[in-house]
Design a protein that fits this description.
This protein is mainly β. It is built from 1 helix and 11 strands, in the order E-E-E-E-E-E-E-E-E-H-E-E.
Amino acid sequence: QVQLIESGGGLVQAGGSLRLSCAASERTFSSYAMGWFRQAPGKEREFVATLRWSGGNPYYLNSVKGRFTISGDNGKNTVYLQMNSLKPEDTAVYYCAASTRRPDSLFSENYIYTRSYSYANWGQGTQVTVSS
């Protein structure tokens, strides 16, 4: 099974920036959408951002809009998450995920790709810690 390999986490002061990267272990791996999720201690995993290789606007968790940017290179099977103006509440383990699920007529794409169950491939997670 293809692996997603993340990098770029670390410790940063509030207001600082980090850039997370995620690459698929197989260049021939084909996904429809890529996403970033995060999980803080004692909390459930939550959606952060997603993009579809077919196009359309990326979609974000409301609390990260204007601060985080998801981008990717389909040819390299790589996705990035640029995180600016970081806050202590952004502290979490961040996970990259890939979805091969195609959209359907029952649900909007934003609904489908903000759900963790739409993603079959996950990275191991990278810790992001924001100090106040």
